[in-house]
Amino acid sequence: MVLNQILIDEMAEEQKEDVRKLLVSSYGQYEHEYKDAQVWEEYLANIKASVDNQNVEKILIAKSDDKILGTLQLFLSSEQAYQRPELQIFSPIIRLLAIHPEARGRGIAQALLKAGLEFAKSQGANQLYLHTSDKMSKAIRLYEWLGFKRDQLKDFYNNDVQVKCYRYDL
Questions:
Q1: Tens digit of pLDDT for each residue in 150-166?
Q2: Distance between CA atoms of 145 and 125, rounded to whole angstroms?
């Protein structure tokens, strides 16, 4: 069996709706983790709106045969990524890594993360950051396998959820 080639590219304006749908289908797996339906709906609304965020530096997509299978967003600081200047992160930050449920296990997340590392290097950065929660245990295992390390000094709370920081030193 031959796997189709995965191409990493920047999102084009006409791909926004496809990326929005991908984010919803990817993050939908966490809906059952939210006890309060309103909190889930707010989270989902924020995910959908993220595609139009003026603070995002780049949105990368992973494609195969013109079908978008994955995405991630890159920001240049904690203020741009989270409106949290107090975190004092002035290096690129990855947000909203998402892989279509039917495309998981094909190395797409790894390819997108490596593209994020290349972006950080191109910016002259010494680190690349991302934040996650315990709900995303499979993603955390991938981050650690790739060499991301915990940086507890950059953790924060979003409502009652601890948002954990991971840092890759370039």
A1: 999 999 998 778 999 99
A2: 21
Indicate the pTM of the whole model.
Answer: 0.94
Please tell me the distance from the alpha carbon of residue 49 to that of residue 6, in angstroms, as a whole number: 26
C-alpha torsion sign, points 136, 126, 75, 151: positive
| Percent composition of the chain: helix, strand, coil (DSSP 3-state, to 5) | 45, 30, 25
Range of the domain at 87: 7-169
For residue 36, the domain's CATH number is 3.40.630.30
Structure-block tokens of residue 17:
């709706």
| pLDDT(2) > 50 | no
pLDDT confidence of 3, banded at 50, 70, 90?
Answer: low
Task: Report the C-alpha gap between 143 and 73 in whole angstroms.
Answer: 16
Query: Is 1 domain-assigned?
Result: no
25 burial via Cβ count (<10 Å: 0-12, 13-18, 19+)? middle
